[in-house]
Write a sequence for this structure.
């Protein structure tokens, strides 16, 4: 391999299409009504044909499932519902054989209260594992730290009668926080990483990273100690497992996210030495807001507020995931607006967010769904698709917590939806079965045979994006123009300039570009392959129409 090629391979994540899936929800191979690893293996060809480059698997470890697996009881095995470590090895090998990569969730911040460390820790104040967790005689420590699961947890402290002290937890009380001030904990978690990396995985989605350390007088988020630890993790991975990545989950403002990439904030040529990737949380709700206000201003503003990141780093952009659509990174006024507009029924709300899927949020309006994806696939960053959103699956707001967006994948219109041969009444969660989003109507098989389906559109969009590396590597520049209902930006690198136009409104819109760029060369639409004839410097866009125009 030439060194250029080697470098590109090392930076594979910069222009990869990610696909987030929940093993329990994807495909059941043994007829017990729960998805499993062999089930995922059986669908790898499907994912490959969609154009997926990297799978992100939600936690797959033994767990009492009080938080659907984010409460890990054993870091070295697979949850028996999902299969075995050998099944996992096979999944990695089969994905690699198809040119796809696999990253898994890494829950660093906390364990389950059923983890043997915590069972020991709570036994007595002098237990050797006592210091693995954060204990206190009083619940009046770290009072500046916010409660995250506000709907269920009154405090970050829970009293444990066995020893008469409180333990610290940023999420459910059944998820005690590990104590990273204890070097043994820090070291043991490195062993966990190595265990899975030795199996050939391509990295981790690192859960809840802002909260690893606690310090009095702070909000206990993004502390310097946290960055020091994460840099050590990165250094270990770079040295021992080159080419593997850390994708950080830090639900923070852009300026608080920037330090997670490391390097030098003033010089993007200095390589990042912390996370390779981080989710861009703040842009996501602003995309949804833009469709309601028919105004691009907030999306533009948040991208302008987004600092540059090291050349070897990348953002991850997403529209939806397995959690509620978080409204933590918006103002109180915008939160109220989003709840009013997108979650009119209180059952649709959870904590500081909205527990709904993409298609129902966008009124199942095909044009709007495509327009939202056109933004997702053209913004700087690597896009993530949440399983089922490629076919426009619905949700079930009657289910507990976030389970309503984690229902079985809809493969076919037959009984069991092709998800499982078990009696559907015994599935881990009910299939979506309503008139609009039910599996008889919305399923992979039907959409694959219909060339006009959302699935084919998504597949095409992915292919077009991949054919134009500028989307992964290019600069972003907003286009000055006269119509706020149209989001307009250039993506530009040394080889190509693409003009992205998205009509955020339900009516036709005309934009007049004040920049001369459109005129330099006759533009053509890289999705349809057709030339576009602007009227002078003006262009019309139909309701929710988007265009990706090659202009040079
Ligand atoms: C973030 C995960 O996405 C969420 O599902 C989980 O409940 C919390 N972290 C706690 O692990």
């Amino acid at each position: 391999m030439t060194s250029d090629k080697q470098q590109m391979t090392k930076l594979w994540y910069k222009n990869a299409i990610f696909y987030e899936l929940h093993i329990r929800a994807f495909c059941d191979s043994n007829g017990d009504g729960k998805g499993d690893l062999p089930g995922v293996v059986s669908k790898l060809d499907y994912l490959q044909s969609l154009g997926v480059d990297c799978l992100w698997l939600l936690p797959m470890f033994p767990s009492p499932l009080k938080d659907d697996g984010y409460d890990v009881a054993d870091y070295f095995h697979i949850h028996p519902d999902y299969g075995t470590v050998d099944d996992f090895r096979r999944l990695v090998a089969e994905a690699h054989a198809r040119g796809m990569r696999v990253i898994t969730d890494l829950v660093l911040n906390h364990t389950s209260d059923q983890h043997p460390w915590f069972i020991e820790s709570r036994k007595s104040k002098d237990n050797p594992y006592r210091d693995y967790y954060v204990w206190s005689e009083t619940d009046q420590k770290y009072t500046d730290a916010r409660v995250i699961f506000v709907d269920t947890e009154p405090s970050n402290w829970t009293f444990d009668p066995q020893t008469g002290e409180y333990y610290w937890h940023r999420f459910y009380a059944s998820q005690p926080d590990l104590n990273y001030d204890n070097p043994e904990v820090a070291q043991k978690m490195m062993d966990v990483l190595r265990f899975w990396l030795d199996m050939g995985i391509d990295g981790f989605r690192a859960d809840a990273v802002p909260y690893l350390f606690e310090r009095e007088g702070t909000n206990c988020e993004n502390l310097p100690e946290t960055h020091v630890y994460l840099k050590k993790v990165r250094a270990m991975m770079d040295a021992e497992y080159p080419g593997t990545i850390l994708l950080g989950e830090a639900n923070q403002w852009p300026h608080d996210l920037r330090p997670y990439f490391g390097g030098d904030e003033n010089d993007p040529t200095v390589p990042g030495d912390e996370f390779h990737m981080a989710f861009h949380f703040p842009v996501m709700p602003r995309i949804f807001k833009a469709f309601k206000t028919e105004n691009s201003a907030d999306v533009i503003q948040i991208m302008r507020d987004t600092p540059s990141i090291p050349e070897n780093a990348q953002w991850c952009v997403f529209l939806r995931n397995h959690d509620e659509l978080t409204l933590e990174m918006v103002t109180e006024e915008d939160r109220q607006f989003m709840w009013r507009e997108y979650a009119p029924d209180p059952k649709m709300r959870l904590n500081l967010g909205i527990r709904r899927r993409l298609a129902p949020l966008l009124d199942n309006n095909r044009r709007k769904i495509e327009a939202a994806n056109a933004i997702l696939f053209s913004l700087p960053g690597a896009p993530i698709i949440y399983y089922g959103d490629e076919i426009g699956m619905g949700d079930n707001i009657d289910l507990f917590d976030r389970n309503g967006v984690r229902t079985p994948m809809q493969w076919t219109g037959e009984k069991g939806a092709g998800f499982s041969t078990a009696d559907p009444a015994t599935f881990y969660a009910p299939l979506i079965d309503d008139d609009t989003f039910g599996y008889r109507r919305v399923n992979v098989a039907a959409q694959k045979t219909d060339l006009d389906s959302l699935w084919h559109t998504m597949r095409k969009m992915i292919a077009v994006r991949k054919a134009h590396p500028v989307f992964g590597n290019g600069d972003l520049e907003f286009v000055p123009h006269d119509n706020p209902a149209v989001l307009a930006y250039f993506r530009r690198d040394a080889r190509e300039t693409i003009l992205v136009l998205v009509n955020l409104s339900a009516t036709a819109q005309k934009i007049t570009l004040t920049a001369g760029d459109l005129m330099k060369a006759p533009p053509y639409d890289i999705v349809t392959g057709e030339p576009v004839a602007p009227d002078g410097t003006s262009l019309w866009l139909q309701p929710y129409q988007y265009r990706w125009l090659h202009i040079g």
Observations:
- Residues 224-240 form the longest helix (17 residues).
- The longest strand covers residues 101-107.
- The chain has a mean pLDDT of 96.
- The CA atoms of residues 33 and 427 lie 4 Å apart.
